[in-house]
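Fill in residues.
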């Protein structure tokens, strides 16, 4: 009788293509010498994710086996946890953090605990991208006790209407706006201020004013903002939607950086009749220094032990020819392009 191997979590995990390249599990080189020092792992199940988010490659309505679907427009190959551990030990010097992304399945909470405990011998910081719909506050506390140091929530949409339209009732999905914000608040309380993160996607239909307000809300809660630029996933409900306009994303990157750094607040920003940012609430010299540094336009993500962003997600929200979140410090040519984009309405 043929033995059937169950390639599901916690024994198996999917891994971002960039992480697989970093560990030598997939061939390839990064454009412009970008590096990834965070190994991004994804729980995997035969029945997939119970969510049906309109922009996500893992949505349950999309055809194909769950662990063969693209996610963020690239392959996420599956490997055994044992093989992943062996590879991470071999490449330990290159790894600053491990991030485990949950999916919406009832067993995901306990499976994540098992994976976190299995990672303990590596001695690397661990982040968890949590699935609020299936998590209770006590389970968040268990994630921390198991060894996770940062808990994040992908709220993604800036307004309750967009959230419902693309993640909740509009797509017959299980997710609810209030529950996601509640989970982020629980994460701040459990992990501590500055140890919780919130993903927000620019370009789902919100105004710049609405996204800036969401950024301020996250910062006021004591969490860190991780911005993403919308780029359509083939086969998703929003596959025909245009990518986020570069100018809109640049202005919001700069606004988020200034708000999170304490240089300005949402109340200090001024907006046009269409909700576009007209003024950042800082003098021209301060804005110029921030822009010239390139820091606002680099990937926002969890840090490594050196305090620098480890989760650089090379080209995760735009192709190499149109970089949105820079996985390295932008050079002079990049800054010149960014300045033009900021002024592009």
């Amino acid at each position: 009788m043929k033995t059937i191997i169950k390639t599901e979590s916690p024994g198996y995990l999917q891994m971002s293509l960039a992480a697989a390249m970093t560990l030598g599990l997939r061939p390839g080189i990064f454009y412009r010498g970008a590096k990834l020092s965070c190994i991004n792992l994804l729980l995997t199940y035969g029945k997939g994710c119970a969510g049906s988010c309109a922009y996500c490659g893992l949505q349950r309505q999309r055809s194909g086996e769950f662990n063969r679907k693209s996610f963020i427009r690239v392959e996420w190959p599956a490997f055994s946890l044992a093989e992943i551990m062996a590879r991470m030990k071999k490449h330990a010097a290159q790894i600053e953090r491990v991030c485990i992304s949950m999916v919406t399945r009832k067993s995901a909470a306990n499976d994540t605990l098992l994976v976190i405990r299995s990672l303990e011998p590596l001695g690397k910081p661990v982040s968890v991208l949590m699935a609020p719909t299936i998590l209770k506050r006590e389970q968040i506390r268990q994630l921390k006790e198991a060894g996770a140091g940062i808990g994040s929530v992908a709220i993604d949409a800036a307004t309750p209407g967009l959230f419902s339209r693309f993640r909740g009732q509009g797509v017959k999905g299980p997710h609810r706006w209030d529950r996601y914000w509640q989970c982020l608040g629980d994460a701040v309380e459990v992990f501590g201020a500055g140890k919780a993160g919130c993903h927000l996607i620019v370009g789902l239909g919100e105004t710049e004013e609405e996204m800036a307000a969401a950024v301020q809300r996250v910062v006021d809660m004591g969490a860190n903002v991780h911005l993403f630029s919308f780029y359509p996933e083939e086969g998703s409900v929003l596959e025909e939607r245009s990518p986020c306009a570069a100018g809109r994303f640049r202005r919001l990157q700069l606004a988020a950086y200034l708000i999170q750094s304490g240089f300005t607040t949402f109340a200090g920003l001024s907006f046009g009749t269409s909700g576009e940012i007209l003024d950042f609430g800082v003098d021209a010299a301060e804005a110029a220094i921030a822009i010239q540094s390139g820091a606002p336009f680099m990937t926002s993500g969890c840090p490594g032990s050196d305090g620098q962003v480890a989760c650089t997600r090379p080209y995760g929200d735009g192709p190499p020819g149109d970089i949105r979140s820079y996985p390295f410090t932008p050079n002079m040519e990049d800054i010149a392009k960014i300045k033009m984009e900021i002024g592009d309405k």
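The two ends are 65 Å apart (CA to CA).
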